[in-house]
Design a protein that fits this description.
Blueprint (H helix, E strand, L loop, with lengths): L5 E10 L8 E13 L2 E8 L5 E10 L2 E8 L2 E5 L2 E5 L7 E8 L4 E14 L6 E14 L2
Antiparallel strand pairs: 1-2, 1-10, 2-3, 3-4, 4-5, 5-8, 6-7, 8-9, 9-10
């Protein structure tokens, strides 16, 4: 795909369950993307998070895409309701994927580094990550 400028629609998955009882939630989004010589910028709207806006920046090359999604505030779920905290910065969400010519869409995985926890009395930390799948298709 030569130029990715345009409006995209897609979906990403989030594991809201546990290792013992997995449960997956799906969130729809739209993405207005500008592609200048393979460098990507744009604005996304998460349709299932009360249209929560975010910005993306990244690149694409030879069927591969990589971008970082950044919400303008911390977005979180509590008692099945979505909230935002303007005083806390949201961690970067890293997306990568490949173009599927048969489906005329991108699909891949996303990852977010959410937290670090101190492990015992030593100076080691446990990193916490969330991961999921995503896809998107050009609508215009």
């Amino acid at each position: 795909m030569a130029n990715l400028t345009g409006k995209w629609e897609g979906e990403y998955s989030v594991n809201i369950g546990s290792d013992e009882q997995p449960e997956v939630e799906y969130h729809a989004f739209t993405l207005e993307m500008l592609d200048i010589d393979g460098e990507l910028t744009g604005t996304a709207q998460d349709l299932t998070l009360s249209d929560e806006p975010s910005n993306i920046s990244g690149f694409h090359d030879d069927g591969f895409i990589s971008f970082i999604k950044k919400y303008n505030r911390l977005v979180f779920v509590e008692s099945d309701e979505y909230f935002g905290d303007n005083s806390i910065e949201h961690p970067d969400i890293h997306y990568s994927g490949t173009f599927d010519e048969n489906e005329n869409s991108f699909q891949g995985t996303w990852e977010i580094h959410e937290d670090q926890e101190r492990d015992g009395l030593q100076d080691s930390f446990d990193d916490m990550y969330n991961v999921g799948n995503w896809w998107m298709k050009l609508t215009n």
